[in-house]
Design brief:
The structure holds two protein chains of two kinds. By secondary structure, chain A is α/β, with parallel strands linked by helices. Chain A is built from 17 helices and 25 strands. Classes of the chains: A alpha/beta, B mainly alpha.
Chain lengths: 507, 339
């Protein structure tokens, strides 16, 4: 690309796990003062590559050069001493320690006075370090009580400070999906700060939001199936061309599979009457029929999330009734809801939707164990058979049915959650942002699964990441504003309203 | 990027400052514990028509609280790490038997004089280090490794001493152990000094920082570069040193050495740790919590004795207090599930 020497260069890196080649002779370089966007589908090898970069895992083959010297890191702690550090998606700060303690953890030598740590010196340093990333906060708050945005900035500040401490010019910061946990305005601030940091550091940006990659990076590297696809300058690149290179084939013109959208049935599955919750939404009435996908649309604070939580039994409404298949659901009981045939795919699949420490088979069979019993005991053979059927039907990319869910990519975890509900006999499914944090390829497959669920007779309530996705998927749309149902729009296939027809009702 | 200048000036990240409640229950907060101590003492003061607050009784409380406090100050650091140390009784039994063998006694001609202090404390420390090694190198959960150690050491103590009681002869420490400075029992002063040393280490040194980092999240702490195994072994070792010291004091106090001296030491210490507000989930609570916990538990039992409560009922009260303390101090909403 440029004539300059790269600060960091990986050459022909190969890493395989039993059954999968995660990286196959991948080259990756980072130059001074740039933001590199790293994109690829889930499972394309981005995370593996970054983990090798910081020494969390070791490559099988390949060379690693930093500032002209060959190098290999034993662990992330030694990588930070050489100015290479990563801000993880889940955060890597210790929750019970304060902001200040986390900033300097393990590198407090400079603050020792007569063997004891000088709080005053640490405080002064912390203020100046945090000012660079625009955090002004009580330094003694435990990290657990701060917002994700603050945590992220503290991590960035820590890495910058460490590179100065160990006199490393031009540190390399790796940000893994930094914006998924941020609000719109926080996102803007993050990128303005990254723009400033660029003058003294290089940044590797991993994101599924191609828009922000194109807007903020100087160079884009695309991985697919553990191989380099290409790298290109970020100027004048269209998002659709990146998408094509990531997936390897062009999108079908119809992303949302309108041709598979089925006519809703006559029977009402869910009837919500005069449901209300103070401070969240006012009395609302609506119903969902068999095979119908009803999309709830509205801004944050419109009350749509609270409505879904009340239906799923996670929140207790102040009044009104919820009828599922003619039976009244008790308020505020998620387990009763599940027993009555209501499924819920939460926004945070890691903590709510899946048992990450259990295998794919255990997860998909969780709700149908009764059906797998032979003479009162769960039959391993039946269990395996059912799991394999689910894996195949839902196209879960997993080495085997006994793989731990924690080892699957985000998209495949989500497919596992859907498979779990698909194999149990539910009447209604609430989907809370089912494609959040999932790459384009997996998104398509999730859309297909949603169509399949509808085809099987399940009614759905869905909240999507984008308005376009809502319109594309749903058969009917309910628009909420300030806790009130303001408009209802039918979305039959091939006759859908455009976003511009709707946006006026939302804001 | 829209208008860089405005976004720069408005680009302020912030987090809410801590609430009163959070401040009260911060890592080493003792507000709640002080209040409960005052309430306990107030109730007994009324119940005994003021007798409870006589200086003589307060002296009794201080001297009774000393040994549980020393043990709890050693033990609580293991709990802060996220583990547990159940080896107290075995360690003390073995140390006491060594005191009976090496100090001036009725059965043999050994007399190591004041060397008995480093020897006993050293044996305790060694046992603690073994606990640490079992936990870190063999990766045995501390719950099991220390429980096993307790029985191994207890068996060893009984075996070596043949179950005998060895009377001690004019121990050079007798005066100190039973003495007072300005009306405060010497052992209580030792407990206070140890508490201050550990508290200062926890607040002001890198070791202290690592202790809490491991308790908060061991994996993340390791990623940041904390030497996990070393820190853990030191913590178990310190706990052992404290148990050894307690064993020595107990033997001198009783003027005799027998393995059963170690019995019934674990429960009060664990109760003290829990009542003091050290979270059993790790990462929260410090030496002051352990010391204060020991004081609360002792003050409670002393009051029950003054009120002539049936001793069996007293034990039931203690069990209730342990469970209630854990129920009140752990923020169980954050745990998600309980193992």
């Amino acid at each position: 690309m440029t004539a300059k020497e790269p600060v960091l260069e990986l050459r022909r890196i190969t890493k395989s796990y039993p059954g999968v080649v995660a990286l196959n002779a991948v080259d990756f370089a980072v130059y001074e003062n740039e933001i590199v966007g790293l994109v690829g589908e889930n499972g394309a090898g981005k995370s593996t590559l970054m983990k090798i970069l910081i020494g969390l895992i070791q490559p099988d083959e390949g060379s690693y050069t930093l500032r002209g010297e060959p190098i290999g890191f034993r662990d992330p702690a030694s990588a930070t001493r050489f100015g290479v550090g990563m801000v993880f998606q889940d955060g890597s700060l210790v929750p019970n320690l304060s902001i200040m303690e986390n900033l300097f953890l393990c590198h407090e030598m400079g603050f020792r006075r007569f063997g004891f740590l000088s709080k005053r010196a640490m405080r002064e340093a912390a203020y100046s370090v945090l000012a660079a990333v625009k955090v002004s906060s009580d330094l003694d708050i435990p990290i657990a009580d701060t917002t994700p945005a603050v945590r992220q900035m503290v991590e960035i500040a820590r890495l910058l400070w460490l590179s100065k401490l160990y006199k490393q010019k031009n540190p390399i910061l790796i940000l893994d999906e930094p914006t998924t946990v941020l609000t719109e305005s926080e996102r803007e601030t993050l990128f303005s700060i990254l723009g400033e940091i660029k003058s003294q550091a290089s940044i590797v940006l991993i994101s599924h939001r191609l828009q922000e990659i194109v807007e903020n990076s100087d160079r884009i590297v695309i991985l697919k199936d553990g191989k380099n696809v290409t790298e290109l300058a970020a100027e004048h690149v269209s998002i659709s061309s990146i998408e094509n290179m990531m997936v390897g084939h062009s999108f079908e013109a119809d992303r949302y599979r309108e041709d598979e959208q089925v006519e809703p049935g006559k029977e009402t599955v869910l009837r919500v009457q005069k449901l209300r919750k103070r401070g969240a939404f006012e009395a609302i009435d609506f119903s969902v029929r068999r095979r119908e996908i009803v999309s709830l649309v509205g801004l944050v604070g419109s009350g749509k999330e609270a409505v879904c939580r009340c239906i799923a039994g996670l929140d207790k409404p102040d009044g009104g009734s919820i009828n599922l298949g003619g039976k009244k659901l008790p308020a505020g009981s998620p387990s009763e809801a599940v027993h009555s045939g209501l499924g819920h795919i939460p926004i945070d699949r890691r903590s709510e939707g899946l048992a990450l420490g259990m295998t794919v088979a255990e997860n998909v069979n969780l709700l149908v164990l009764d059906r797998l019993k032979v003479a009162g005991f769960i039959s391993p053979a039946r269990e395996k058979k059912n799991a394999m059927r689910c894996i195949e039907e839902c196209r879960i990319k997993s080495p085997s049915s006994s793989t731990m869910c924690a080892n699957l990519s985000g998209g495949n975890q989500q497919k596992t959650v859907i498979a779990k509900w698909l194999s149990s006999q539910i009447q209604l499914l609430v989907l809370d942002h089912p494609t959040r944090g999932v790459d384009v390829g997996a998104k398509e497959e999730i859309y297909k699964l949603i169509r399949k669920l509808a085809h099987d007779g399940i009614g759905m309530i869905i909240m999507c990441d984008t308005l376009e996705e809502d319109i594309g998927l749903c058969s009917r749309m309910l628009i909420l504003r300030d806790g009130r149902l303001v408009r209802e729009i039918n979305c039959p296939p091939y006759n859908k309203p455009g976003p511009s027809d709707i946006i006026g009702s939302i804001v | 990027m829209p208008n860089n200048v405005t976004s720069k000036s408005s680009a302020r990240w912030f987090s809410t400052s801590a609430t009163k409640g959070q401040q009260l229950f911060r890592r080493s907060g003792v507000g709640g514990q002080l209040i409960s101590l005052i309430i306990v003492m107030g109730i007994f003061a009324i119940g005994t028509k003021g007798k409870y607050l006589y200086w003589a009784n307060l002296q009794v409380i201080l001297s009774l609280a000393a040994i549980p406090a020393i043990i709890a100050i050693g033990l609580h650091q293991v709990v802060v790490l996220g583990g547990i140390d159940l080896s107290v009784e075995g360690v003390v039994a073995l140390c006491v038997v060594f005191v009976g063998f090496l100090a001036h006694n009725k059965f043999n001609s050994n007399d190591v004089g004041l060397w008995i202090i480093p020897i006993t404390v050293g044996i305790g420390g060694l046992a603690g280090v073994i606990n640490g090694l079992l936990n870190t190198k063999l990766r045995i959960p501390s719950f099991i490794s220390t429980l096993g150690m307790s029985w191994v050491l207890w068996g060893l103590a009984v075996f070596v001493s043949k179950g005998q009681t060895t009377p001690l002869l004019d121990s050079p420490l007798r005066g100190f152990v039973n003495g007072y400075v300005l009306g405060i029992p010497d052992l209580a002063l030792v407990a206070i000094v140890l508490f201050m040393i550990i508290q200062i280490i926890q607040d002001g040194t890198r070791f202290g920082r690592y202790l809490y980092a491991i308790g908060g999240d061991e994996v993340l702490a390791a990623q940041a570069g904390v030497k996990i195994d070393r820190t853990k072994i030191i913590v178990f070792g310190i706990a052992g040193l404290f148990y050894g010291l307690s064993a020595l004091f107990l033997a001198v106090e009783l003027d005799s050495a027998q393995a059963i001296t170690g019995n019934n030491l674990l429960f009060p210490a664990v109760t003290a740790v829990a009542v003091g507000g050290v979270a059993l989930t790790g990462g929260i609570g410090g030496a002051k919590n352990a010391a204060l916990g020991a004081l609360i538990v002792t003050a409670l039992n002393d009051g029950l004795i003054l009120l002539n409560v049936n001793p069996y009922a007293q034990e039931a009260v203690n069990g209730f207090v342990l469970v209630a303390a854990v129920a009140l101090t752990i923020d169980r909403k954050k745990l998600g599930f309980i193992k």
